[in-house]
Amino acid sequence: MGTNLDSQAEIADLRRRIEELQQANHSMRLLIEMLSYLQAAEDLETTLRIILTCVTSGYTLGFNRAFLFLHDDGKLTGVMAVGPGDAAEAGKIWRDLEVSTNALEDVIATCRMGGSYGDRHLTELVKSIVFDVGTNPSILARCVSECVPFVMEDASCLAPGDVVNKLEPKAFACVPMVSGSKAIGLILADNNITCKPPTEEQVNLLKMLAWQAGQIVEKARYQEDIKRRLQELSTLNEVSKGILSTTDLEADLTLIARISAQVLNARGAVVRLVDDGSLVTKAVYSRTLADVTPGGDECADAIAERVASEGLPALINNAGEPDFQPGSGYRQNLMCVPLSKAGKTIGTLTVFDKMSPESLGDSGFTKEDFRFLSVLAGQAAIAIENAKMFERLKQKEEHIKELHRHLLRSERLAALGEVSSQVAHEIRNPLTAIGGFARSIRRNMEEDNPDAKALDVIISETARLERILNEQLSFAKLSPPNPKLEDINTVISETLQLLSEAIASRKANLELDLSEDLPHVYIDADKMKQVFINLMQNALDTIDEGGRIGIGTNRFDRTIEIRFANDGPPIPKHLLDKLFVPFATTKAGGSGLGLAIAYEIVYEHGGTIDVRSEEGIGTIFLITLPLVIDGDRRKGPVDRRSQIRDRRRGRMP
Amino acid sequence: MARILVVDDDNSLRMLYERELAGDGHHVTTVGSGKDALKCLESSPPDLVVLDIKMEGMDGLTVLDEIMKYDSTIPVILNTAYSTFKADFTTWNADAYVVKSSDLSELKRAIDEILQAR
Predict the structure, then answer these.
(1) Cβ separation of B82 and A482 shorter than 8 Å?
(2) A and B: number of Cβ contacts within 8 A
(3) Which of A328, A448, A578, B52 is the least buried, fewest Cβ under 10 Å from its Cβ?
(4) Domains (ranges, CATH) in chain A?
(5) Per residue in A108-132, pLDDT tens?
(6) ipTM of this complex prediction, to 2 decimal places
(7) Which residue of chain A is at minimal alpha-carbon distance from B10?
(8) What's the CATH superfamily of B3-117?
């Protein structure tokens, strides 16, 4: 009988084992079925929803409710929940499920269409749980940091301060989702409605599911990440193309604000630029009209100021930010990044009020949004700098156009000069004839002839016309000097000889003080003669009959100095400054060019010309010319005209 | 007392030079073109030529060239309304370059200097 008993025990044992195996087999089949659905999930959200659905489906694990947390960057964040909001809803859901044939397939099909009221309610609840794993004593923190599951038949074992109490869990299990060697999140499953402690089978299946889910979730997250980055890249590409193609600064700023808000799904965006040391709002985009009204939000302004001065971006979601009180009912959350170029902050870009899809509730801006805005800000800064540069370029272009207009005018003037020089030459022949005959007749005329005075007028007037002609021509020409080494005293003597007639007629007293040890200077004698003639003619016009004209030369270390002084009335003070400006001080009968030409020529020679004029002293023009050092390679050739002539005559120089 | 040939296409100036230079005691011949001037060189060779540059037909610089070819010892004074030709090296064969002026003293001084040097 003992044997019989033994075999009965063996049979019972075998039955138990068979049951166990059947159970394990069932679990395996369920797991494989669940995994096949999970593998087919197209994105992270669906993956998570399927996991939670499997945990709560009566066909599979059969928990009342399931919560999913993700662990990232030391933070545990509630992400999603599935379950009935209350007992009434639970009863309805479960009755519906009983009539289905393949519960899991149907449930997953419905879950893809979006969660129930309870799901939304619980998701909102779980999302409010976000904490640092390192510093929080919650059992959830221990679950992920130690990578161990916890099963609690009674929630009274929980520490009263544990955040998990928010979910009012009853009879729950919490298991880590593991990928590699670290927990990437956890699943909390409980029987909040039935209050039944989780069975061993439930817990085992949950552990296996969580284990597999860890890897699938991690994979889905990577895929999601890659997808998002790709999308960001293409968005960024579009954005860059858009904002870089505009060169109008104002249009550019508006575009940046609009694109930032649209791309980040925000309600609005503001671009502020540093202008004259302070931050000025330059462009506002908003989907709500109220936001565009000026004045805005002092708090957002203050944040922008801080971002600009510190050069650090700010991500402020309403919750847990004591220094951010939203202003007049909007701007619940905002991101503000500096726009910087070469390390210098040129402005800020603020995006406010994330517009989350209804199902997800108000989640504010994510870290990814923040990162994306920073990248966008980089592009925006470049675009703004480009536009600014373009505006500066436009200004430069305007300036160049202005210069061009000026040049055209000068060219016209030059052309006019050319024409007038043609005319001047045509006039010279008849003028020479008129004046020449007048002089000729006058010379043979008795002094008491009544016509003598009339002829004198003809002579002096033609002389004046000729002088104006000469000045006009030399100003139109003003060719570069053709310098040679010359003795300045000789040039002065030649000038005086040319003017001998005029000097005689004015009965001028010449006082010469020419230095005897004057070195030769490098000048164009003809041009310098023109200078001296102009100065002498001025002096002759100025002095009274019999007045004094002094001419002196002096040597200094590196310069020589030539003085032309006269004792005529002084030049009015207001004219002294513009004495050398063409046409500025035209005296009666003058061309207005005499002193301007003198100035040009002296300037061409590297010299200076100054004037001093005072009552009682008279007027002194002072010319300073640079001396050439002996052996200067610019030493000009001797007069080739005379050389050639001498050779022709058979005389050697 | 010298034989002076004046070449100028301006009739008034020819009259003026004839009157003035004759008044100084010179024997003056005037012609209105380069061609006539060259004919004159053969028929009555002058001691000095006063030559205009801008002329109808043959211009003064070409005439100067022809004179130099014919007899390079004949002194020539270029007498013109333009100061710009001064830089032109073809004018360097002339003995003087005087810009036209109703005051003939510079021209006369040049004539005297050249005649004295001979």
Answers:
(1) no
(2) 78
(3) A448
(4) 24-226 (3.30.450.40), 246-392 (3.30.450.40), 478-648 (3.30.565.10)
(5) 776 666 667 778 888 888 888 888 8
(6) 0.85
(7) A429
(8) Response regulator (3.40.50.2300)
